[in-house]
Amino acid sequence: MDRTALPIQVDRNSPVPLYFQVAQHLEHLIESGELATGTRLENEIDLADRLGLSRPTMRKAIEYLVDRGLLVRKRGVGTQVVHAKVKRQVELTSLYDDLAKTHRDPSTRVISFRTEPAADALAIEFGIPEGTEVYVFERLRYADGEPLALMRNHVPVDLLRLTAEDLEVQGLYNLLRANGINLRIAKQSIGARAATAAEARALGETKGAPLLTMARAAYDDQGRAVEHGNHLYRASRYSFDLTLTGW
Question: DSSP letter string over 88-154?
Fold first, then answer.
């Protein structure tokens, strides 16, 4: 993109601070892909002059995005776009689908894949006899080549035939749909905790870094529990979006 043509406009009559207006415009350009990873911005002085803003105002806008992990300052290079944080609506969709829809180039590495007898609590969750065979697999999901989520899932073996190779190239929900399993509803719990040393190594974080957690049980249109997942997401790269309505 021509750096002199960034489509940023500010409304001086708005109650929204000018620095925040600029930061929001830049954030939208990053998330939409118009400002790709690695793009260098104009220096703060030139950008401030072009927009008719004070240099402290422009500096505050840039610092806001640096603090959010969207921009980075490099000596001798200037200010560069680092990446867009993945924002995900809390809906019954898969991470793979959401990344593909937003052109974030999802890819997957299967860390482990096996079958095992369902323990008591899991058997109750699935509504199957204790000891029934279930798939259990752990995957590392990438967005644009960067690790984003560590995912552990259980799926009853009698629902479909799964292989590690299938899970490397497609999302789990795509595979369920391809086998005639229509997801209808899910129970989901979202939380947060610190990364263990092993989790940090897998996700490219430091030990103790904040992670978002999600536990989900999904059901099909026949009321069957078809998958149970425990997922970890890098809080520095990922967030959940919720829409709330009043009475």
Answer: EESSS--HHHHHHHTT--EEEEEEEEEEEEPPHHHHHHHTS-TT-EEEEEEEEEEETTEEEEEEEEE
Handedness of CA 153, 155, 160, 163 (dihedral sign): positive
- Report DSSP state, residue 227: E
Exposure pattern of 173-189 as b/e (b: 16+ CB <10 Å)?
Answer: bebbeeeebebeebeee
Q: Residue 247 to residues 90, 225, 243: CA-CA distances in angstroms?
A: 20, 31, 13
The string of DSSP codes covering 14-74 is: SSS-HHHHHHHHHHHHHHHTSS-TTPBPPPHHHHHHHHT--HHHHHHHHHHHHHTTSEEEE
In degrees, to the nearest 5, what angle opens at C-alpha 180 toward C-alphas 109 and 94?
Answer: 40
Inter-residue contact 97 to 173 (CB < 8 Å): yes
CA distance 105 to 147: 12
The pTM score is 0.63
Q: Is the Cβ–Cβ distance between 237 and 211 less than 8 Å?
A: no
Q: Give the dihedral sign, CA 172/174/180/186.
A: positive
- In the numeric block, which tokens belong to residue 128? 């199957």
| pLDDT, block means (10 residues), the chain with 247 residues | 59 86 85 78 84 89 83 81 59 66 82 95 89 96 90 96 94 92 87 95 93 91 90 83 57
